[in-house]
Fold these 2 entries.
Entry 1:
Amino acid sequence: MIRLEPRSQSSRWLSLMAPVLAALFAMLLAAIPLLAAGQNPFIAYGLIVKGAFGNLFALTETLTRATPLILTGLAAAVAFRAKLWNIGLEGQLYLGAVGAVVVGTGAIDAPPAVLIPLVLIAGAAAGALAMIGPAWLKTRFQTDEVVTTLLLNFIILLLVQMLLEGMLKDPMALGWPQSEPIVDEALLPAVISPRYRLHMGLYLAMAASVLVFFIMRYTTFGFALRAVGENPAAARHAGISITGATLGAAALSGALAGLAGVSEVAGLKGYLTADMSPGFGYAGIVVAMLAGLSPLGVVLAAVFVAAVFVGADFMSRALSVSNYLADLMVALALLCVLIGGFLRRFKVSWISASNTAKGANT
Amino acid sequence: MEFFDILLSENFWAATLRIATPLIFGTLGALICERAGVLNLGIEGIFTVGAMAGWMAVWMGSGLWGGVLVAMLVGALFGALHAFLTVPLGLSQHVSGLGVTMLATSGAYFFYRTALPDVSSPPRITPFQPLDIPVLSELPFVGPALFQQTAMTYLAIALVIVVGWVLARTPLGLAIRAVGDNPDAVDSQGLSVYALRSGAVIVGSAIMAMGGAFLTLSAFNAFFFGMAGGRGWVCIALTVFASWQPRKALLGALLFGAFDAYQVRLQTEVGAFLPAQFFLMLPYILSIVALVVAARGADYPRALLQPWFKGQR
Amino acid sequence: MHSDSNGEKPPSASTRSGVRLKPNLQENNGASVGAAHVASAGLHSLPTENTPKLLQLQNISKRFGDTLANEDISLSLHKGEVVALLGENGAGKTTLMSILFGHYVAEQGTIHYADAQGVLQLLQPGNPQAALAARIGMVHQHFTLAENLTGFENILLGSENLLLPARGRAALRARVEAQMTESGLQVSLDERVSALTVGERQRIEILKALAHDTQVLVLDEPTAVLTPQEAEGLYQTVALLAQRGLAIIFISHKLHEVMAASDRVVVLRHGKLVGELTTAEASQQQIAELMVGREVPPNKHEHVERGEPVLQLSAVNVDSTQLRHRLRDVSLTVHSGEIVGVAGVSGNGQAGLADLISGLLQPSSGEMRIGGTPASGAGPRQLMARGVARIPEDRHHQGVVAAMNISENLIIESLDDPRFQRFGVVRSGAARAHAEQQIEEYDIRCEGPDATVGLLSGGNMQKLILARALDKAPLLILASQPARGLDIGAQTDVYQRLLDARKRGAGVLLISEDLDELFSLADRLVVLHEGELIDAGDSDKVDRSSIGLMMAGQHKDVAEPQEAQR
């Protein structure tokens, strides 16, 4: 018999350690595909760490990669807190990038102090819009938002391709489907020096994380959002508008994902292509789960996931192992953290049938 | 009237059935899982890994049916993972499903790249050939559409009948329907909720994987990255559209196939005026519309998404 | 198709002219409904020493952490006997039955059952399958039916080999139908369960439990969902089944039904068996004292002058596909300083009435006034601002957000109150201080304002809800099942708070399924039946049996319908 006993109060230490242990365990599991590929896992792990943190360049690359992941991670955390299953982060990210391109490629002539905020607002608004639709369908018609947001990812990506071959196409790009470049006044400045790719987007993302923490913890909107997520019936009974909280969560979540798109296009790439995001939207879900939906934890989780990607890239070049290993590790991390959450809530022990009991119940 | 002419062409109807086939497998699989009370968002990854595993087996010489079998086994394996996480552990079916999709997809890609590191263009196999059913395939119009498909398409349709019969008429089907409505009803009669739910998820996932195998072993002859292309998510929408009934799942898949086949043909007619992506979007938009229409008043299995633990009433 | 076994003779007749076997049963009006049917339960011969034993529990003890849920309980059950297992919530009844059915394993003690030859065999502990194989069947309080299947399909479940096609259904069908004729459990077997009434579902449950050649049947609080008349039908069924040789355990916490349905009463208190009596020789008072452990205090309250109307419903209709939400032409007035009790079998519109007054549901027609001014169209927030306080029926579902802490749950209804927020930012300091004060005032036992509400006991959770509801000196208090599932101490506390509020001048609308509660608290009673509200008049002028008839929708035969608007 498996015996499960709900832990009355999961200890703080356990809450903090569970995701760390899950991540480490996922790394350990990744030894299986490594061995299958004929590699020594320890050498591979060493190369991953070196590739992710080995020198200043590696570190800046990791942080550059972490930037959009923080934002999509926050987006997922906000939505999941409200039990709104926003799996459409990828689409919202692209739509946010489109918003940035529309405003930031010369349509408006203004100094950076004006143009950068405008670009950010445009991207956030576009992302928010992409999520409000499915959320509205959910509140109005009880349409499952998981499926609608997933399908919207495909629709939006096709839309972006269409725009890049049409309205947004850069005539100077020799036929490549890409947008015109973002004007210099709208570009997010580099952080350390222009030699590194790290840009102000990182600070933006960290500021967003603090802001989201504050909103969730200290505002009535955050309160309502959490209440609706935990127990919609009680929230409604207490006079909280479920539609309002759901749409609010959707707008905030979509806006954050949209900002991730802005940060990539205006901070890193400089122009929009249809292959700009290697799945930042989906990885954001993993980041949020690893962080236990905590806005501040998202930053750490994003750095971890980014390190896996950057380090695995480095390792795969050195050992000629497929860099899909990184995706594999991230997927494993998600499943491990899920199980970790289970172990945090229940004490599990294998016992003989003679002691079977599940909580006091008379 | 080109718009109408398309409907009269034999190859439009043949394409409809061909496009519908993987969706029939996928929707049947999703429907079995959901009837037992488990949402399986692993479907997209199971499609991918089924396509890869089936193709890889054939490429290594297993024979086509051997490939289908391997795909089913691999699908069942990922189904077992999802079942373990969601049934006895009772974890979030949403998150677990997405995790399974990520794991299966990246696992498939990693395995393919590792097994075939140096290929520049995807190697090809000889896929299932259309069965020319004598006499019937000679029939005008319906002949090519209905009687020149590959064996897997006929298998899909046969499966609709089998799954429908099992769910409606057998003790097993009764128990599956009951466990998706009220697990306590099954438990109080001495049946195992865990076994029924896990079994349904595993079998459902094996059937989903057949949809993936169809892509590499019948529709095409090679494995490509991004092959599933959202078909899994479409199946999840079709399941709601079909009200969890196999016959309606077949109907939904055919409607979807017809629409997809129509938009491809329409593209060649009016493609000069509208970009290709516009047409490619239509099937996804159609899925959302179908979901919105069907979701109102949909008769969801009452215990869908609800974890159940033994001894906790 | 739906013919109650008591359909032949009107229940009123049986209630009034039933043979009274026990002169000492008539102390309070609660007995009259039950007493009549002791006759039917007593029709068969009482078991003697010679009657074979079917089940024997010996020295059962079970501990959960520090509490002894069962302590040295011994109990045996003979063929043809109905034993009532009586006790308050938390007395250990459910634990004992869970041990019998193998869900828990006792630390001490054994269970024996009679095999086919009548020889006592040891029941393997901790194995639910073993209990089924020992031909012990249970009807749970919460039905375990799949609603998307027919009644017969529910009975079929588990009786066939899952790996084979359907076989032998006709034989089982014949057995079930024979069972139906013998026991009077008439119900349509081919209707989807979702289309059946609660009473019909219960019959399916019983048939399901009987389908496996059952010799011991356990009924867990079987009347909780029935009208008094339906309950009487059930007593007759129980008597019939006992006559046919079954041994029946009838779990209950209601005295009168124990008197009506059982041959023997076994009383549990705090996990101990405190008394075992032959029903025919015991009085209600005697059993009540055993159950509660002290004199049952008469819950009389002081007189309060009635004031202005605080709630007025005039000709309110609520259209809904669900019976429990439907209201038909309901008119009702609650005045300041009075408690109006709403009786009725659950699911007859109580949810609709509660949701209407909570602002969760809008009337399709008719008008609602709060404090004399129209309030139709107002949502929860507006109604709270107008002085409506709500104690919802299901604490866990609607009352609290279990994952949030006490201080958050105390301000959840006041999110736009300037006391607790400024410019959309929560004033956590003020919220905490408020929580500390309320914890003190309402004696909420917890670790402090930051304790997660999900960890509180039911009683403390209810205190929190009371604290929140009464915080703003409300004009009207809507209390739905406010004491359900609480221990006596917490119940008394809830009652006292409601009486205090009434004294202060609040109007209280008390929705309850517990007639004892209604009679002891309410000044006036109304009854809901299929969405219609029937005025029953002052609570000290009406008796239980007429309330029972009104609950069954037969009021028109006994009393002239009275004007609810007074």
Entry 2:
Amino acid sequence: MAVAIETSGLRKSFGEIEALRGVDLSVEAGTVLGLLGPNGAGKTTAVRILTTLLPPDGGSASVAGLDVVAEAPRLRAKIGLAGQHAAIDENLSGFENLEMVGRLYHLGRKRAGERARDLLDQFDLVDAADRLAHTYSGGMSRRLDLAAALVASPPVIFLDEPTTGLDPRSRQALWTAIEERVAEGTTVLLTTQYLDEADRLADSIAVIDHGRVIAKGTSDELKSRIGGDRLEIVLEEDGSPEAAQRALAATLIEPPTIEGRHLHAPIRERRGAIAEAVRLLDAEGIPVEDVAIRRPTLDDVFIALTGRAAEVEQDEDSEEAA
Amino acid sequence: MRHAIADVLLLGKRNLLRFRRSPEMVIGFLVQPVMFILLFVYVLGGAIQTPGLDYVDFLMPGIIVQTIAFGGFVTAIALAEDLKKGLIDRFRSLPIARSAVLAGRTVSDVVTNTVSLAVMLAVGLAIGFSFNANVLEIVGGIVLLLMMGYAFSWIFALLGLSSSTPEAAQQVGFIIIFPLTFASSAFVPIDSMPSWLQAFATVNPFTVIVDAMRALWLGTPAGNSIWGAVAWSVGLIAIFAPIATWRYKTTVSG
């Protein structure tokens, strides 16, 4: 399969700050790469280099087979960008916004108008099509912004934290729209701090931190790197965690970790695990409030890889400001 | 090339639609200069001595130069807004010329400056302003004004692209350029000023341009003012258009 986005040893500094310190990425055409990382990790800088907004200091990058520096003008016809801001003109209507962007992609007036109508329909903005965009809600502005990135049906689209600050319904709508594009063969690079978003949309994930890719793989591969399913037990107030730990030790790969009234441990086999745990605890007369098996989430992956949670301080605007 | 011109016109049209949509901008743009003309002529005019000329004749070239120079102000504010909202990022990711957005902006300023010039002239003529010039001189003055306005649009473009917020662009533009227009021959004869200010006002480009306009429209002695005004306008464009374009090419939203 063809490679739609490729970077090799990509570096970029802003003064003293090294935003990217040698990033290698490869995205096959028609797939979604989730670029995951905390604020300031270098996600936005990577997107800006790939969309020709910033020149790299070192390394190379190509999109749709075109070099981001040497072939930037031709490359721009092949990409759509939805950045962190809803980049729309509030003094134009929704339709006018999309038509203008379509015409700047040189679709021609007629085709740009048709595409604008189609997208307004797809993004549930038909009723608001002729209203000025400054009357739009945050979710509507975001949807219009994403529609603008899609107007020319570019083969590669870049979405920089597309659902930050959106209500759940708008998030779902955006996710569906992105999935439809991918089904049609569009390649997507998506940055996000939301692990569920990467889990839902991304075929492959690259975790980036301090300007380096620290892990790559599918969501399942990343999760299996930190172990499989986990058994989680919550004891009632008067249950002894130490007694529970002893009771369970024989059946588990390793003794469960105690955190207050909570115990958790990795397990080999889901089947029967809960029944077995309950039986053992019941035999010792240890009262149990809750028993569950939890799959590791990308949050667990992220904490394991970076030593901290993904959704750190909501310091969006200052990210990589340079 | 075909695309390049179409892109500029499309972006220029976008800028002009803004006026249709916000009546308060039209008021700022057209009503404010008319208000100043009336205040200067009827409130201050009686106290200002302008030997050889009626004050309304003396004032009109000056206040028109000031207004047209400020015509590009909307460019500074609009570009600062576009930058803040991420629209500049979007435009820079599109397959259009690197100069298209700024060219669209400055060209639409020429259109709005032409409208505001027509309104001011109409008001001026209604309250007693009269040309002492032939058609060629009148048209030459109009061309010079629009060229000067175009030059200032590029300065404002650079200001807008260098400002953290639209409000900052507004403040800086107002604080730097507004006093410059007053410390010139625009509103009062220079020899009524203290001598240290006269020295500055004499070399102030606004004085050169206002004197050129009076020479063209009122038949006052031109000296070197007309060529000086052309040189200033061309020079400002030659300096600020490349700097603003460079700034556009390298600026990303915060």
